[in-house]
Amino acid sequence: MEGMIRIKLVRSPICTPEKHKRIVKGLGLRKLNQIVVRPDSPVFRGMVNKVPHLLQVVE
After folding, report:
1. 4-58: CATH class
2. Among 18, 45, 28, which residue's Cα sits nearest to residue 9?
């Protein structure tokens, strides 16, 4: 999958600020260890960089 990134939710967003919860939901993540595939664009890279303690980019 050229030009795509796989994003995994590794920590729960329960005790995080509302802004962080919206970022996780905006990426389409609902459950722990769930992986979503998104285009490798600055928009999605920026979302991942806002909450690096909750997400992981899977190679």
Report:
1. alpha beta
2. 28
Q: Are 50 and 21 spatial neighbours (Cβ–Cβ below 8 Å)?
A: no
> How far is 8 from 54, CA to CA, in rounded Å?
9
Is residue 26 classed as helix, strand or coil in its secondary structure? helix
Burial zone of 2 (CB within 10 Å; 0-12 exposed, 13-18 middle, 19+ buried)? exposed
Tell me the pTM. 0.91
Which tens digit of pLDDT belongs to each residue from 13-48? 999 999 999 999 999 999 999 999 999 999 999 999
Instruction: Give the closest residue to 20 by CA, choosing from 56, 42, 59, 48.
Output: 48
User: How many other β-carbons are positioned within 10 Å of the β-carbon of residue 21?
Assistant: 14
Domain boundaries defined on the chain: 4-58
